[in-house]
Write a structure and sequence with these properties.
This protein is an alpha/beta fold. It contains 20 helices and 16 strands. The chain has two domains: 222 residues, Aldolase class I (TIM Barrel); 275 residues, Ribokinase (UDP-N-acetylmuramoyl-L-alanine:D-glutamate ligase, 3-Layer(aba) Sandwich), CATH 3.40.1190. The strands form two sheets. It has an eight-stranded parallel beta barrel with strand order 1-2-3-4-5-6-7-8, surrounded by six helices. It has an eight-stranded mixed sheet with strand order 10-9-11-12-13-14-15-16, with helices on both faces.
């Protein structure tokens, strides 16, 4: 077996503890996992005597050889040498990479555990064959994890390897199981260096049927998740603004005819107005903050809005359940990180939401969006309405582009000029009215509007997002200009009227309103 041919797709790491292996025989479990399609095995036993390690290692090697799968030994070069297996896996506290290589020779497979950029670079430069990146999610299997890096951290390390043009193979580890594996693989592959596979302990070693679990996991590693079907395509990103504006009437009509569900998990302050906005644009609103309802609602073909307006621990749990339900159903999710940078609780919740599922559209003001960028979690925002104050649109454009690429999302950064991007081109929208900033919940209702558009026209979420923005902001202009509107109070009902009027006019083919798009 040549090292270059090793397939890391489904990498089993064994565990001999009572809590995971139980009373089962390790060799039988590994053999059934191999039958199920495991492509690489690491024998990891932190407690047994050396004699047991060597004896078990030899038995395991007889088995893995039958399946033409490499066997690596955790920590122990001497055991790997005695067993005569294909290599070792070493952590940061074990023997150093250079010495391991010297002892085992150039043909041995040597893998290294990394949890930050420095360790990643060192392992890649030092000639490791692969790295195990972790800990992705908190896991009971390894309670002494140095850091939980999330999908975020994983993405950053892959970007780093991509930049340095490294050929090193990569797997991730920690809390990977059937419920998240296909999402993690997909979210770690967009544009940048892709993950080669996943390393798994308990989801196979503790499974009732390791063969069936391995089969399922391998299938999930290789197949894109449901939400990936309608990701914005490269040619949709490079269109002209005019091409997108030309699609707006069609999208608004789609909302009118399909009446998509807009499922809002939102704060008390805006529930009423968000529901009215949804009705005015022709969508069907439901305000449902209980996560357990999401599975049934997602099956109705609508979109979810996660609005972090009044985040609580319970609320966060509910968001995560709903996010998973919509991801599994392949239905779109709009994230409104209200006040994301205002408190430590919100910064942490933002990280949890972004790392715990796939978001189609992130919509926020400047400081909210900046808080969603890697490294953005340290930014301090004053309140929910404040902006970070940067007016350099080119610079901001690059920030939103990077965010869109890294997370494979559409980003809408609202402000005097709104920026919209899916990663390639930044579209600027200059519409809107200052009254929008004087009424509570108008940002939240924009997310509701966008959710209806992407639900009605999922094949082109970028155009749908821009359609939502134009419908919304031009309605605000038309309302503000009305004779009967004297200020923010009279603006609200007029705004609902104009949202409705734009829809009705568009359905009739009257597109005068759209001439205001700028
Ligand atoms: N190493 P499970 S996490 C062995 O972060 C190991 O380096 C980790 O177990 C690291 O698949 C981990 O059951 C345990 O979550 C992974
Ligand atoms: Mg170790």
């Amino acid at each position: 077996m040549k090292k270059a041919d090793v397939d890391y797709s489904l990498y089993l790491v064994t565990d001999s503890t009572k809590a995971i292996l139980g009373d089962k025989d390790i060799c039988q479990v590994v053999e059934s996992a191999l039958k199920g399609g495991v492509t690489c095995v690491q024998y990891r036993d932190k407690t047994s005597d050396t004699g047991v390690l060597v004896a078990t290692g030899r038995k395991l090697h007889e088995i893995t050889k039958k399946y033409n799968v490499p066997l690596l030994i955790n920590d122990r070069i001497d055991v790997a040498f005695a067993v005569g297996c294909e290599g070792v896996h070493i952590g940061q506290d074990d023997i150093d990479l250079a010495s391991a290589r010297k002892l085992l020779g150039p043909d041995a497979i040597i893998g290294v555990t990394v949890s930050n950029l420095r360790e990643t670079e060192e392992a890649a430069m030092g000639g490791a064959d692969y790295i195990g990146i972790g800990t992705v999610f908190a896991t009971l299997t390894k309670k002494n994890s140095k850091s939980i890096i999330g999908v975020d951290g994983l993405q950053q390390m892959l970007v780093c390897l991509h930049t340095s043009k490294s050929k090193i193979k990569t797997v991730c580890i920690g809390g990977i199981n059937a419920s998240n594996v296909s999402r993690v693989m997909w979210q770690s592959a967009y544009k940048e260096k892709a993950l080669d596979g996943v390393a798994i302990v308990s989801a196979i070693m503790a499974a009732a049927d390791p063969e069936a679990s391995s089969k399922e996991l391998l299938q999930l590693v290789k197949s894109p998740p449901a939400f990936a079907k309608n990701v914005v395509k490269p040619d949709q990103q490079t269109r002209s603004a005019e091409d997108i504006v030309a699609l707006v009437p069609k999208i608004i009509k789609m909302v009118d005819s399909k009446k998509p569900l807009s499922h809002n998990m939102t704060n008390l302050v805006v529930q009423n107005i968000a529901a009215n906005v949804a009705l005015s644009i022709g969508a069907s609103p439901i305000m449902a903050n209980y996560g357990e309802e999401a599975k049934d609602l997602a099956a109705l073909g609508g979109a979810l809005v996660v609005n972090m307006g009044t985040v609580t621990p319970d609320g966060l749990t509910n968001y995560m359940i709903a996010l998973k339900a919509y991801n599994d159903a392949g239905q779109p999710v709009v994230f409104d990180p209200v006040g994301a940078g205002a408190t430590e609780v919100r910064r942490s919740a933002t990280k949890t939401i972004l790392g715990g599922g796939y978001i189609d559209v992130i919509k926020g003001n400047q400081s909210e969006v900046l808080t969603c960028t890697p490294g953005g979690s340290h930014l301090q925002q004053r309140g929910v309405d404040s902006t970070a104050g940067d007016t350099d649109l080119t610079k901001l454009g690059n920030v939103v582009k990077d965010l869109a690429v890294m997370r494979a999302v559409i980003v809408v950064m609202t402000g005097k000029t709104d920026l919209v991007t899916a990663g390639t081109k930044v579209f600027k929208v200059e519409n809107g009215h200052e009254y929008l900033g004087m009424v509570t919940g108008t940002g939240c209702c924009l997310a509701t509007t966008i959710s209806a558009m992407v639900a009605a026209y999922p094949e082109d979420k970028l155009a749908a997002t821009i359609a939502g923005l134009l419908h919304y902001e031009i309605a605000a202009e038309l309302a503000a200009e009305r004779q009967d509107v004297k200020g923010p109070g009279t603006f609200v009902p007029a705004f609902l009227d104009e949202l409705y009027n734009i829809r009705k006019a568009t359905v009739k083919g009257d597109l005068v309103w759209l001439e205001r798009a700028k």
